[in-house]
């Protein structure tokens, strides 16, 4: 019996941590994830969907091969969903410490992480969303992960993403949820 060949899919990101997280999942789906370490072009928009659609189309026009791009945001209830699609910018400007200061004295620390992943090829553009609910810690905890991982505690767990290994984080993560949805779709899809 002939062994099934691995499918290849390109991930466009300049973030090596995102590649590592997603690559560990891809292995379980007989998918070879190819990392294109190029910055994705992003528009400033109020929704992750708009941002990722634009990025995917630009990347596809440059590479001309089936690919995925993703964008994630941290949405904090007490801050009316801030920083949302501006999460990366806000992290660079005020950091996790700034988010903790904004929530100082706030009892409602509910938040969610959302990822929207776009797959594009010559015939379609399809979106996949992953979301994980949790809360913002009162202090930075853990040195693993990236972004806001050391201040986000998923519901049902007492650890921040920053205190979890990649394998542990992938059990809960918004990115893992979106990527698994895409991989399940890919398993049944033929170009």
What would you say this structure looks like, in words?
Homodimer. GO terms for molecular function: dITP diphosphatase activity; ITP diphosphatase activity; metal ion binding; nucleotide binding; ribonucleoside triphosphate phosphatase activity; XTP diphosphatase activity. InterPro entries: dITP/XTP_pyrophosphatase, ITPase-like_fam, RdgB/HAM1. This is dITP/XTP pyrophosphatase. The protein has a single domain (7-188), classed as Alpha-Beta Complex (Maf protein). The radius of gyration is 17 Å and the shape is globular. It has helices spanning 16-26, 48-63, 87-102, 166-172, 174-188; strands at residues 7-12, 31-36, 67-76, 82-84, 110-120, 125-136, 152-154. The chain is α/β, with parallel strands linked by helices. Strands 1, 2, 3, 4, 5, 6 and 7 form a seven-stranded mixed sheet that branches.
Number of domains: 1
Counted by DSSP, the helix tally is 5
What is the terminal-to-terminal distance?
Answer: 24 Å
Mean pLDDT reading? 94
Q: Please state roughly what percent of the residues sit in beta strands, choosing from under 5%, 5-15%, 15-25%, 25-35%, 35-45% or over 45%.
A: 25-35%
Counting copies of identical and different chains, the oligomeric state is single chain
Q: What is the global morphology?
A: globular
Order of secondary-structure elements: EHEHEEHEEEHH
Low-pLDDT regions: none
CATH architecture: Alpha-Beta Complex
Brief descriptors of the model:
191 residues; alpha/beta; Maf protein; 27% strand
Task: Summarize this structure briefly.
34% of the residues lie in helices and 27% in strands. It has 191 residues and is α/β, with parallel strands linked by helices. Strands 1, 2, 3, 4, 5, 6 and 7 form a 7-stranded mixed sheet that branches.
